[in-house]
Design a protein that fits this description.
heterodimer; A: 259 residues; mainly alpha; MetI-like fold; 12 helices; B: 353 residues; alpha/beta; D-Maltodextrin-Binding Protein, domain 2; 2 domains; five-stranded mixed beta sheet; 13 helices; globular
Chain lengths: 259, 353
């Protein structure tokens, strides 16, 4: 395969950008010794916080799948007035600054909020609690899942669904046995992106739930309260975990492409 | 194609313009206690209007954090104001600017005072029952949400604990401290009774338990929005801050509010210590005393002249009025520590009536 000639300077510009991304990551990783990393992994609070973060991201993604796949399917398969408005609404969390999202969520899910107030009667609280973390993560990361799933559903040939329909399959059977099996890799890749985006959320979560501390909040508190030397090992550990995760995601995405 | 090029050009020009705004102003970096945010924001506006060539960049944190930014994080800061003047001799006089023999500060002004109180609102649970004599009992109820600020970072944080400890002797009830705090943190805050001295010990990791009815934040002003949103029923705040925000205010008795200079001796019977190395070289001990705010210019301040200008503005009739309107009057006549080291430019303040 022969490369096409590139406009002058493109390689330089691209290299600079790549360096801009990779350099901070590498510097952080190499500024932590293996020993510090080990102490950090065994630090009870860090381990607890990582567990909490991943769990909350998992719950948020699960709810996202449950409510988001139907929406993605509707957007992929049907046409109706107001559809572009609806997809605009789905994208809204991407452009709302996250601290503003946190305040908006607090006004709705807080103890005095229209949703939070009735739910507090049954003991479900959204401030300084796991449900609050989940809500914060979900809000900011949902568009990633919905949009990826929508694209995955769209890429499934409608003719296949049509064939199933003439064979007498119900709409639910078609979704479950035809569309989803063909789109699952795209959906999964969307779910992993949503999860990864969810666990990295700081702004929206910190307004709802400062504690229990998810890992981004813990890093911020250690940085603010105890300094760089206390925060860097935690940041390195998180970077490593996320890099592993991301490698997995890329691998998945690539197998989607080759299919 | 042409359209694209045009669009790109427009974008480049827009970003270019925003990037090279004329910036000839001198910046004056102020780090101050969170409880000063309202009056200092007003001071900033008034000051910048009077001196348009100066741009104030202010940050507000818990008072311990404010000092940390100067002496541990070595940030270039021009003016420091804390809610506890004692932090200055303890953490700034004793520590040298790296690479010099010069302490971070050798003087400070006792700027203002305050009193600790309880902020609440109409929807606070048991608000109608709350009095000066039962607040500690109501705050200890498991269904009451109480906002505390972190004693590792913030002056209200350790002062509210002092109040609980002092309350034990004032109300002649040895259980008040633990009734409120027991089982609220994964590692406990302990009260050590030394007879005529009470020592409160703070663990390095301070994390509320799952079932806790306490919500903790890094500084007392961070609890304001929790009060406003109804997330907490009660929070410890300074009287000035409660009045600025118009919350309901429960005054604590003078023997507990750390605001009465004649009770200094009683306040001194309680101290707060950290069970860990919080600062590189100093092991801070927070002794109960009348709340006094401290103001100083770090010796390594890059904009000494502008910082002095700000202090003079603060003590001008206009500055004094702003503080007064925010329920936080300056202490006048001016009292300084390390009077021999006070810059000449500030000598005139000492003559204020």
């Amino acid at each position: 395969m022969k490369n096409k000639p590139l406009p002058f300077g493109f390689v330089l510009a691209a290299s600079l950008l790549i360096l801009f991304i990779i350099l901070p990551v590498l510097v952080t990783l190499f500024s932590t010794s293996l020993e510090e990393l080990l102490t950090t992994i065994t630090d009870r609070d860090v381990a607890h916080s990582i567990g909490l973060t991943f769990l909350a991201g998992g719950i948020a993604t699960s709810i996202g799948i449950l409510l988001g796949l139907p929406l993605a399917y509707i957007l992929a398969r049907t046409n109706f007035p107001g559809k572009s408005l609806l997809s605009g609404i789905v994208d809204l969390p991407l452009i709302i600054p996250h601290t503003a999202a946190g305040i908006a969520l607090l006004l709705v899910f807080g103890r005095m909020g229209i949703v939070g107030s009735p739910l507090s009667k049954i003991g479900l609280f959204f401030t300084d609690s796991l449900p609050g973390i989940v809500v914060g993560m979900m809000f900011v990361s949902l568009p990633l899942l919905v949009n990826a799933s929508r694209e995955a559903f769209s890429s499934v040939d409608p003719e296949l669904e049509q064939v199933a329909r003439t064979d007498g399959a119900s709409a639910w059977q078609i979704f479950w046995q035809v569309t989803l099996p063909l789109a699952w890799q795209g959906v999964l890749s969307g779910a992993i992106t949503m999860w990864a985006r969810g666990i990295s959320e700081f702004g929206a979560v910190v307004i709802l739930a400062y504690s229990p501390k998810i890992i981004p909040v813990l890093i911020y508190e250690r940085f603010q309260g105890f300094g760089l030397s206390s925060a860097t090992p935690v940041a390195s550990l998180l970077l490593i975990l996320v890099l592993i995760l991301f490698a997995l995601l890329r691998w998945l995405a690539r197998s989607v492409e080759t299919n | 194609m042409k359209k694209h090029t045009f669009l790109l050009l427009v974008l480049a020009v827009v970003f270019g313009l925003t990037a090279c705004q004329p910036k000839e102003k001198t910046s004056l970096v102020i780090f101050a206690a969170g409880s000063l945010i309202q009056p200092f924001t007003e001071l900033e506006q008034a000051f910048e209007q009077k001196y348009p060539e100066i741009d104030i960049q202010a940050e507000y944190h818990g008072s311990i954090q404010v000092i940390r930014h100067v002496t541990e994080l070595h940030e270039a800061i021009d003016l420091v104001a804390t809610a506890d003047q004692a932090l200055m001799p303890m953490l700034m006089y004793e520590v040298n600017v790296p690479g010099t023999n010069q302490a971070y500060a050798q003087w400070h002004i006792n700027m203002a005072t305050n009193a600790l109180a309880i902020a609440y609102h109409d929807n606070s649970k048991y608000a109608d029952e709350l009095t000066e004599d039962n607040w500690w009992e109501i705050l200890s109820r498991p269904d009451v949400k109480v906002g505390l600020s972190d004693p590792r970072f913030d002056a209200v944080g350790y002062r509210q604990l002092m109040s609980f400890s002092l309350a034990q002797s004032v109300y002649k009830n040895p259980d008040i401290f633990y009734d409120f705090l027991e089982d609220q943190f994964t590692y406990p805050i302990r009260l050590v009774d030394m007879g005529d001295m009470q020592i409160i010990r703070i663990p390095e990791i301070l994390e509320t338990t799952k079932s806790s009815h306490i919500m903790m934040r890094g500084s007392s002003v961070a609890l304001i929005s929790l009060l406003e949103a109804g997330e907490v029923d009660y929070a410890f705040e300074y009287e000035s801050v409660i009045q600025q925000h118009g919350f309901r205010l429960l005054k604590l008795p003078n023997s507990l509010n750390l605001g009465d200079p004649s009770l200094e001796e009683d306040y001194g019977k309680v101290t707060v210590r950290m069970d860990f190395q919080r600062f590189a070289t100093v092991d801070p001990i927070f002794k109960g005393e009348r709340i006094t705010y401290g103001l100083t210019i770090p010796s390594n301040a890059p904009h000494m002249v502008e910082a002095l200008q700000f202090i003079r503005f603060l003590y001008s009739p206009e500055g004094q009025a702003i503080m007064q309107q925010n329920y936080h009057p300056l202490l006048i006549p001016v009292v300084v520590n390390g009077v021999e080291n006070v810059p000449d430019e500030l000598q005139s303040l000492l003559d204020l009536p």
